[in-house]
Amino acid sequence: AFAQAATRPQDFTFAFQNADINQVAQAILGEAGIPFSIDPAVSARITLRIDQRLNREQLVAAFEAALGANGIAVVRDSGQLFITPQAKAKSSATIRRGTEGIGGAGYEIVAVPLAYAQPSEVSKALEAITGADSVLYANDKLGLLLLGGSGGSLKSALEALRVFDQSAFQDSKIRWYELSQAQASMKWMVSSRIGP
Q1: Quick one: which of 80, 76, 75, 70 has its CA closest to 48?
Q2: pTM, whole model, 2 decimals?
Q3: Which DSSP string do the residues of 3-40 spell out, in sequence order?
Q4: How far apart (Å, rounded) are the C-alpha atoms in residues 169 and 4?
Q5: 43 pairs with which residues across the strands?
Q6: 92 or 123: whose pLDDT is higher?
Q7: Which of 91, 85, 103, 80 is nearest to 149 (CA)?
Q8: Long-range contact list for 62-66, CB < 8 A, 24+ apart?
Q9: Which of 28, 41, 57, 175 has the fewest Cβ atoms within 10 angstroms?
Q10: Separation CA 38–CA 30 (nearest Å)
Q11: Distance set, CA 81 to CA 60, 85, 92, 135, 195 (Å)
């Protein structure tokens, strides 16, 4: 999380109608004391109304969600937020090692080494679970996954990853089967790898 400029907790409320993204970012992030920059390719107008009092973290999450709905991403880099088109977010984010502090504002890429499970198999499972393109790269030889996302989506992907990277899944293939006669719509099943 970003360091709070003020020593006391603050609550925020805002209302913007068809406002320039630069003005909205300055009002919200500037008021929250968060350093930021905006990609020159970003030129949009947004409407955002926050009627209830939000704390700083909630405010930034709401702003990020509003930007996302308008095709704009927030990338976190060295304690600063960079506002850029979603198409450029993956190439703008730096790859970080370790998962401490994941789940805050901004798009991030994290390198995750796997101890037991094959990255290509875990990649398939994560895509089925999250329904998003959170896996950016999988390499079985290196035992490495690169995950990308922002806030809760990246944190959820990492939590799901911990479920699959256990010794019980070593050398296993993960398969999903649709059930037609059961309560659940999907269920996962692991089968041992057979053959080369």
Answers
A1: 70
A2: 0.59
A3: PPSSSS---EEEEEEEEEHHHHHIIIIIHHT--EEE-T
A4: 42
A5: none
A6: 123
A7: 103
A8: 63/24, 63/25, 63/28, 63/29, 64/105, 64/106, 64/150, 64/151
A9: 41
A10: 13
A11: 10, 13, 11, 22, 48
